[in-house]
Design brief:
Blueprint: H1 2-42, H2 47-64, H3 68-80, H4 88-101, H5 106-119, H6 127-140, H7 145-161
Helix pairs in contact: 1-3, 2-3, 2-4, 3-4, 3-5, 4-5, 4-6, 5-7
């Protein structure tokens, strides 16, 4: 009986050690992915935004229940699409709310907003208004913001060049 009890303890310790090693590996991979995403965003940030990005991204992670690396990647995508440093936090917060209300991911909501802003030469300050138009369109139609976001890039530039206002959709 003593041998089997000792074997049980030994096996339990070995299994626990194996699980802890797997957890450590996953934690390291997550940390590396998060650090890489933050570093990528920081390549486009300056001054106080560079220093404060980590904390702001962590706050948005908690606010939206999204993965840190997804939020940081969203920052990078928004900055790459010409969202100014001083507007990045508010812009990504708006896009985060849009992604949740619009049944989509952060990347799609950021892409939809930046595509509209850039195609129609709008101010980044209009992001909340644009998000509202997209949500209203979703709520009044048989679509989602995710579906709209995937299609907006195919028509926004053409519509803008044709002189159509984005807000025609909201009238």
């Amino acid at each position: 009986m003593t041998d089997s009890f000792e074997d049980l303890i030994k096996n339990g310790i070995q299994e626990t050690a194996k699980e802890l090693k797997e957890l450590a590996t996953l934690t390291e991979e997550y940390g590396t992915k998060s650090e890489t995403a933050l570093a990528k965003a920081q390549t486009l940030l300056t001054g106080d935004m560079y220093d404060g990005a980590n904390e702001l991204i962590r706050n948005q992670t908690k606010m939206f229940g999204r993965d840190y690396s997804d939020i940081a990647e969203g920052w990078y995508q928004a900055l790459s699409a010409a969202v100014p440093n001083d507007k990045i936090s508010a812009f990504t917060e708006t896009s985060g709310k849009l992604s949740i209300s619009g049944f989509t991911d952060s990347a799609t909501s950021i892409d939809a907003l930046t595509t509209i802003i850039n195609a129609f030469k709008l101010s980044h300050d209009e992001a909340a208004k644009l998000a509202s138009v997209l949500i209203n369109t979703q709520n009044l139609g048989k679509t989602t913001v995710g579906e709209l976001g995937q299609e907006i890039s195919t028509v926004a530039s053409t519509a803008s060049l044709s002189g159509v206002s984005f807000y025609v959709c909201d009238e």
